[in-house]
Amino acid sequence: MPRKAKIFLAEDDILIRDIVAGELKQAGHTVVLKASSKKEGLEKVKLLRKNKVNVAILNNSLGGSWSDGSTLYREIKKECPEITIICFSLISGSGWADIMVFKPEFKKLVNAVKTAPSRRNSVDDFSREIGRAAGEAFPFP
Predict the structure, then answer these.
(1) Amino acid 55: pLDDT
(2) Do 99 and 85 touch, CB atoms closer than 8 A?
(3) Between 117 and 66, where is the model more confident?
(4) What 3-state DSSP class applies to 134?
(5) How confident is the model at residue 7 (pLDDT cuts 50, 70, 90)?
(6) Biggest alpha carbon–alpha carbon distance for the chain
(7) What is the SS3 assignment for 91?
(8) Which residues pair with residue 10 across a beta bridge?
């Protein structure tokens, strides 16, 4: 689970976006990329790896149709399947997100980021466990 997440935040309401970014910063996380529309979000997908994003928070309807969030979800999963995606919306994301949090539950959103699974961390933890077990089985002088 990411302790200090690097986050992509796609939210069309500037007030909500600023509140979410502030709450996440206060919890020790960093919003490294922001988008306010599906078009802008799709452009940012290309920057996720470069910015080491491990959590994306998407509004279901980025100022357009109700499918904007799910379209962005699919593109993120194509480029970076290891990223945990949280839908933060007034309505259900219809099951497309890894985690669903309803607005305006800001504290629940921060907690979802804190507890979000991270494949990168899981692999690192697994590698450390294997290394530790090998060292115990075959100690080096």
Answers:
(1) 95
(2) yes
(3) 117
(4) helix
(5) very high
(6) 64
(7) coil
(8) 35, 58
**Contacts made by residues 33-36, CB under 8 angstroms, sequence distance 24+:** 33/7, 33/8, 33/9, 34/8, 34/9, 34/10, 35/8, 35/9, 35/10, 35/11, 35/62, 36/10, 36/11, 36/12, 36/62, 36/63
Q: Give the C-alpha separation, 62 to 50, whole Å.
A: 23
CATH of 6-137, one of 3.50.50.60, 3.40.50.11270, 3.40.50.620, 3.40.50.2300: 3.40.50.2300
**pLDDT on residue 61:** 79
Q: Are 87 and 60 in contact (CB under 8 A)?
A: yes
The one-letter amino acid code at 136 reads E
Q: Residue 101 pairs with which residues in a beta bridge? A: 88
Supply the mean pLDDT for the chain.
81
Residue ranges of domains in the chain: 6-137
Is the pLDDT confidence value at 49 over 90? yes
Q: Which amino acid is at 62?
A: L
